Task: structure prediction
Amino acid sequence: VLDVPSISQKLVECFGRTGPLGDDVRRAILCLPCSLITRGAGAYFVREADESKTCGLLVSGLAYRHKVTAFGARQILSVIVPGDMIDFQHLFLNLADHNVQALGDICVAVVPRAALRDLANSIPSIATAIATQLSIDASIYCEWMLNVGRRNAQTRVGHLLCELATRLGTDVPASGHCFELVMTQEKIGDAVGLTSVHVNRVMRSLEKDGLLTRRQRFVTLPRWDELRRASDFNDRYLHQDRMSSAHAGRFEDAAR
Amino acid sequence: VLDVPSISQKLVECFGRTGPLGDDVRRAILCLPCSLITRGAGAYFVREADESKTCGLLVSGLAYRHKVTAFGARQILSVIVPGDMIDFQHLFLNLADHNVQALGDICVAVVPRAALRDLANSIPSIATAIATQLSIDASIYCEWMLNVGRRNAQTRVGHLLCELATRLGTDVPASGHCFELVMTQEKIGDAVGLTSVHVNRVMRSLEKDGLLTRRQRFVTLPRWDELRRASDFNDRYLHQDRMSSAHAGRFEDAAR
DNA sequence: CGTTTAATTGAAAGCAGTCAAACTATGTGG
DNA sequence: CCACATAGTTTGACTGCTTTCAATTAAACG
Result:
């Protein structure tokens, strides 16, 4: 369990990831009212068509954004990893246009929407940090749209695995990327626009080709370069260069 | 042809669309260096993997964002209509992650990226206006992803037509929405993740069902409510409530 | 009026979806 | 510790939506 100061510190790190912060700005962030909440798998953090009243920084666990058609089909829009802000997208809009749900158990540093808005309205570097984060999110949406709209099943699934490995994986590409695949095959399907049955066939085929190994919930990608090329994966769209690696590492540790 | 003051005035309207502006802010925008350029159909305004050095306000004509897979398949990500900022998404990022291309002849008010960035870095309401616009763009991406990933061909095409009608159409829903369909069927296909051949079949079928009429490049949607329901279209994701209708109308006129 | 571009149509093939059932893992309560 | 329940994975057979390929017609353009 974390105390309030260390939660606030996480917020500072989050805003600082997209550019250097002045001391006064850092102090202002530390003054933001915030609290830590935990939620179980499947818990909603944002509901479409609702007014969202809080912003949240994901401290641990994973979450996902999604929308549902009138017919009931679900499209997962992105995966939210620790260190990401959950709801910048509705900070300046009236009604939420998508849902955010916990993928497993999650821990979120919650900040009242109004307080964050006030801060953004008074400190430009806060507002531009938010804009930068929104730009990165948009970039990820674009790549996903390309993935869903214009790639075949093999490439779609491979691409998602590559993204997850890049964003979650401990960076030891020597023995191949390895990470816990928290998503069920049905959710993977909803993320790449396929049925769970077909996701299963594709993953088995990747396994047969030696591009993927599974033990329990953990996935290893032994031939990273090959999979990356086969999956048309280029990490430019993640814009991770904007993230100082120092912060990234420290954050992970703190979230334990 | 427009003179510099009236171009600057358009920038003020653009920033003012997401919230009221103070007089000082308005003056600051009017001081932005800007110039009007015209480009022919197919001209690139932004190229993926390039550094984008300018931001542009689309004054007249249409443009579209797109990405291309390694295999050469193209996905159109969104349509840019007059009054939209073209490249807020790369204002705070180093490298462009998608292309922006003119759909027909376009006229763009160009502002140097650095100048706009400086303005955002000094005036919070500018930065939050940009963040708001980015949020709306992101919302549109999300809906498109749902469209491409989880709807059938009929619904996808219908949904795109509904969006175009809403964003472009003269609002006379009495005789049905009517607008100029600038996109070829191939581009429509690239926008909704289908082949041009199938788009053609779907449009013919919509026409047969009386949901669509065409004369030259102009499209009429005579039974709007029916099409809207059949296409699972709800305009919430466009967040047009944030746009004061006064501005919207005036802008269109000025662009002539 | 010819040339180019876009729209249209048909036939055949294929990728992914649907349906249904079996299997495996995981966890729970007795 | 076992029996049972539940959630998730795996597999097969069949269907069908969409693509592909190819050719024709219509429209736009200089």
